[in-house]
Amino acid sequence: MEITPQLIAAMTGGRVEGDADVPIKGFAKIEEAGPGDITFIANPKYAHYIGSTEASAVLVADDFDATGSKAAAIIRVADPYKSLADLLNAFEARKKVPRGIEQPCFVADGVEVPDDAYIGAFAYIGSGAKLGKGVRIYPQAYVGEGVEIGEGTVVRPGVRIYEGCRIGSRCILHSGCVIGADGFGFAPCADGSYEKIPQTGIVEIADEVEIGANTCVDRATFGATRIGRGTKLDNLVQIAHNVELGEMNVFASQSGVAGSTKIGSHNMVGGQVGFAGHLHIGSRNGFGAQSGVHKDVADDRRIFGYPATDARKYMKNQAYINRLEELFNKNR
């Protein structure tokens, strides 16, 4: 589909400087964009590309200095990254959405499939499952007995949802993620072996949650492991049994939360962050990559390091450590 900067400005609440009618055919990174592409600058690290990009249009902030730009059009908006997201979502919404039931697949007797739903080839829908309107279950996905999936949720190829789990509306589960596998519960025995503790609970995922590829959310020993509304989990994240995550959290890849830890809302968790079990974590915190969190954290903190501590304190201590050799050489 071909659009113009004028139309893009109207969609994003922006204003155009330059050619408002140059045809735009696609999106590209600023360092790779060519004629017919639209790109954006949100991070100051990429500002220098404004003089070399061959894109036809560039989304920038209202106060961005576009001196030297070769682009036919500059589109000024309040938030370039948010505006780009809005544009991409508008394009995605125009894509054809699959409907119907492909064969071969298995849908248990008594399961009602809404007219606007999609079930791909080789998918399995267990007995007692409940599917909301507009659900899309792609090929080779497994939906176990008694699973509930809310309207508009997308289950990508190869997803596994174990029995009894509940998925909210407008969620996205990416390929290979596993919802409801057994929590890691084993009782040590006198002979040194471990006896498995049956995991009898479920997983409850609220509305508008996105779960990345190969991420695992384990079922509770009893009760439920819970993921709050709007929370986003990246690829390769581990959420253990009886964990509770609040609303609007974001977890980057390879982070993990051990059993029974409770985390509030609006937290930002960097890659490879690890949370020990049975912790209480507040809201609106930021956790730097590879932090090891071993004790409770209140609200509105910035945490970094291993063992994790206040980010400013960690940086100061690191500066001291970096000078140890110098101080040692002075005093020996």
Jot down its keywords.
332 residues, alpha/beta, 12-stranded mixed sheet, 10-stranded parallel sheet
Uncertain runs: none
Classify the helix fraction into a percent range: 10-25%
Compute the average pLDDT.
94
Q: Round the Cα radius of gyration to an integer and report it.
A: 25 Å
Count up the helices. Answer: 4
Total strand segments: 37
Alpha carbon gap, first and last residue: 72 Å
Strand order of the largest sheet: 6-8-11-14-17-22-25-28-31-34-36-37
- How large is the share of residues in beta strands? 25-35%
Inertia-based shape: flat
Largest sheet: 12 strands, mixed
Structural class: alpha/beta
How would you portray this structure in words?
This protein is an alpha/beta fold and 332 residues long. It is 13% helix and 27% strand. It is built from four helices and 37 strands. The chain has a twelve-stranded mixed sheet. A ten-stranded parallel sheet has the order 7-9-12-15-18-23-26-29-32-35, with no helix packed on it. Strands 10-13-16-21-24-27-30-33 form an eight-stranded parallel sheet, with no helix packed on it. Strand 36 and strand 37 form a beta hairpin. It is flat, with a radius of gyration of 25 Å. The model has no long low-confidence stretch (mean pLDDT 94).
Short description:
The protein is α/β, with parallel strands linked by helices and 332 residues long. It is built from 4 helices and 37 strands.
